[in-house]
Each structure stands twice: as structure tokens, then as C-alpha cells.
# Entry
Amino acid sequence: MGKYIVEKVSVPKNSIANESLSYIHYSDAYKILLPGESAHDVKFIASKFLTTVPSWVSHLMKVRDRVVSFIGLKTSSLSEVENIKLEQVSRIGLLRILNCSLHEILLGEDDRHLNFRVSILVEEVNGLNYLTVSTVVYFHNWMGKLYFFIVRKVHKVIVPAMLKNFVRKRHIVKI
# Structure
């Protein structure tokens, strides 16, 4: 696989993200083809995806955490990301594991300004395996709208970059 093409798609209809919030004000999803030799276990893939974050994304999260800590929003603890366990009630940085199924893991957090969910879904279509990362957001107030107005611009770059980095580094082959 020479090129790593990330496709912007709708949140898959069968995704548990669609039912995870009382109302969805914003949603997006990005899909990438997994190499043929990839593992198909969603927990394995999700743990690798969440631990192969490009360094520039980690730096942006640190800046975000410093800024939002002044206004009382929740911050992440990315130092916890090394040995993650994808079980309900566990945390990965800012994210809580909310739901796990055979093909999907739903993460997210509720804060005073907005609630968000991130779905990591592995699907087989015509013998090919795809990874789709979807985000859905519910705004509580004007602060949530303002915050996400700013974050959305970076979010649309971060998720595709994380998918490309994940597949390019080939950290998805179970040994």
C-alpha cells in the first residue's frame, strides 16, 4: 500500500456513536483501508491507533490542556496512554471508554461546555477491512459552540493525520 488515502465519510449508520448523545450538533467520520495483513480485533487496533499519535498532535494537546485549565474544562493525561486497557470505565487521557462491541469501541467525555464521542469501528466490506473514526458532539451552551468552532478546524486535520500515521507505521499487525 503505497498511498494512504483517508476518505471523509458520514458516520456509519450501524455505529453506536449515532445513539450515544441525546442530540448531535456536529459529526464527522474518516475511513481508511487497513493493509491486508492487519489484525481485525477492534481492541487491538484501537489501542494501537490511540498510542501512535503524531508528536505534533501530542504537543497541540498539551497547549490545549494549558489553555482550557484556566477556564475549568477537563484536561487530558496523555502520560497514561502507554499501557492502555480498553475496558468500560477505564480512561485513555481525556477519553473514557463508554462502550465496546465486537467491531467498535466508543470513547468520550462529558464536560460543562459540550459532550463528545469518538467511535473506532473496524468493518469488513467485500473482503477488505476498513477503520472508521467518527466524532459526534453535543453543545451545552455558547461556550461549547465557541470552543468547538476553534477546535473543529484542527480536528479536521488531526483525525486524518492520525489515521495515515497509524497505517503508515504499520503498528496494526498482531505479532
The chain has three helices and seven strands. Strands lie at 6-9, 26-33, 91-92, 95-100, 104-110, 114-125, 128-139. The helical segments are 42-51, 55-69, 142-168. Residues 78-83 have pLDDT under 50 and may be disordered.
